[in-house]
Amino acid sequence: MLVRQRIAAAPASLARGATNSFSSASSASSSSRFFEKTRPSPSQLLSKQQPSTFARRAYATEAPAPAPAAPKKKRFRFLRWTYRLTVLGLLGGTGYLGYRIYLLRHPEEQVEPDPSKKTLVILGSGWGSVSLLKKLDTENYNVVVISPRNFFLFTPLLPSCTTGLIEHRSIMEPIRNILRHKKATVKFYEAEATKIDYEKRLVYISDDSEIKGDVSHTVVPFDMLVVGVGAENATFGIPGVREHSCFLKEVGDAQKIRKRIMDCVETASFKDQTEEEVKRLLHMVVVGGGPTGVEFAGELQDFFEEDLRKWIPGIQDNFHVTLVEALPNILPMFSKQLIEYTESSFKEEKITIRTKTMVKKVTDKYIEAEVTKPDGTKELEKIPYGLLVWATGNAVRNVVKDLMSQIPAQKNSRRGLAVNEFLVVNGTENIWAVGDCAITNYAPTAQVASQEGAFLARLFNTMAKTEALEEELKKLSVAQQEAKNDEARNEIFAEIKERQRQLRRTKQIGPFQYSHQGSLAYIGKERAVADISWVSGNIASGGTMTYLFWRSAYLSMVFSARNRILVATDWIKAKIFGRDVSRE
What we know:
- This protein is of the alpha/beta class.
- Helix content is 44%, strand content 20%.
- Strands 5-2-1-9-21 form a 5-stranded parallel sheet. A 5-stranded parallel sheet has the order 11-18-12-13-14.
- The chain crosses the membrane at residues 81-99.
- Residues 516-580 form the External alternative NADH-ubiquinone oxidoreductase-like C-terminal domain.
C-alpha cells in the first residue's frame, strides 16, 4: 500500500519540481534516482499523461533536433555558368590577342643569309608571292623580293575603300613586317622589274619613286626566279578607256574613285547647273559584271542610300548606278539561282543592269556601246556618265611579254606565261610563275594565286631538303668506303638506308592541284551571295545571313591580327557614325 502511494505521488512531485525549477540539486537527483528505479504502470501513464510529459521534458539531457533546412533552389545556374564561361572566354581571347600583337611588334633576331646557298628572287608582292613567302623556309635560300609597292593588298575588300566604308590602310600589310618575321634575313627592293635576262640569269630593276638616289637602275642575279607580277588592266584596244576610266586594282585606284564620286556630287550641286548635266554627273557607270564590278555597284548604292541622300538631299532624284556587261549574265562563275537572285536584288535597289552591251568607245562625257536586242539585232547607243569604273579584263605586263619573247616554247602564248603542272615556265628550268601572269587551267583569281604560292613554298622546301639529304648520302658513301672495320661499315650502311628512306618520303610531292573553296560577292543592302564547295557538290545561298558569313570569311582571311582589328573597327565606325562625305 505504501509503495502504491509513493508511485502515485511521484508524478505530482515531479510536476511540482518542474514548476519550481528544481529548487535544490539534491532533491532533483534523488527524485531522478527514484524515477529511474520505479517504473510507472501503463494505467498510470494513461491516466496522468500530462504530468508525465512534463517530467520527460524536464529531465531531457539533449536539445531537440533542429528542423531540416529547406533545400536551396537551383535557379539561374545555367545563366551563372554561361556568364562565367563568357568572361573566361573574353579574358582568354584578349590575352591571346595581346600575345599575338606582342609577337608582331617584337620580331626575333634573324639569321644572316649563307652566300653558298642559291639565290631565290621573287618578283611581286601580290597573293601568289606573299603566300609563297609566308610558308617558305628562308634558311634554305638567299631570298630577294622585288616589288614596286612595299605592301600586300587584300583586294577583295578594295571596293569598300572607294566609298569610305573601310580605310585603305586597314587592308594593307607592309612587306617589311612579313619579311622581318622570317627566320633568315630577306632582302627587299622597292623597284620595278623592267627586264628579265633568261640566259644571263639577271633581273633589271628600276627605282620609280619620286625621290631617287645616285643609283636608280641596277641588276639582280638569280639562281631561281618566281614571277608573280600579276597583270595590268585590259582595255581591249577600246579608244578612250585608259584616258577617261577609273580602274579598280590598286589603292590609288580606290582613292581616285573616292574623289571622283564626291567631285560629281558637288559639281552637280553647283549653282545654275542644268538638269541634263546634273543627270549626267550623277550617273555612275560600272563596266564589268564580275565580282569586282558587282561589289562596287552594291557599295556605291549603299553609300548613296545610307549617307549621301541624308546630307545632300538635292541629289536623290537623279543619282543612279548602271552596271554594263557584254555577256548575257552577270557573275558568270555563280549558279543560275544566285545570278537571278542578284538581278532581282539590284532591281529592288534600283541598280540598272545592262547585259549584252559591249563598249566600243569612251569619251569624257559618254560611252558608245553596241547593244544586242532580244531579237538579235544590234544598235549603237550613247550612255552619258559622270563616273566610269572599268572593272573587267587582265592584260600581260611588258616585262612578261619581253620574257616570253626570249623563250621559244612561249611563242604561241598570248595571255601570259604558260607553265607545267609544277608551275615551271615552259621552256625553262629555273623560272616559275604564279598568279595572273601565269596561264593554267584555272581562272586568274586571288584564291588560285594563293594556293599556287603555297604549293611553291612546299616545293622549294622539299627541294632544299632533298639536296641536303643527297649531299649527306654522298658523304656517308665516302665514309663507308673508308671505314676500318665491318662494325663501323655496318653502322654507316644503316644510316645510309635511313637517309634513303627519308629521301624517298621527301620526294613524294605531286603536281599542283587547285581546290576550289567557293565564291563570294557582296550585292548591297547588307546582302551577299555565296557559292560554296561542299563534299562533292556546291551550296548556293544569298541574303543577310550570307552577308554575315561573307564578312566573317573576309575578316578571317585578311593577313594579320592587326588587319582584322582595323577592318572590324572601320565597320563599327561606319555603322555608328556613317561614311565620311568629305572630298579628300
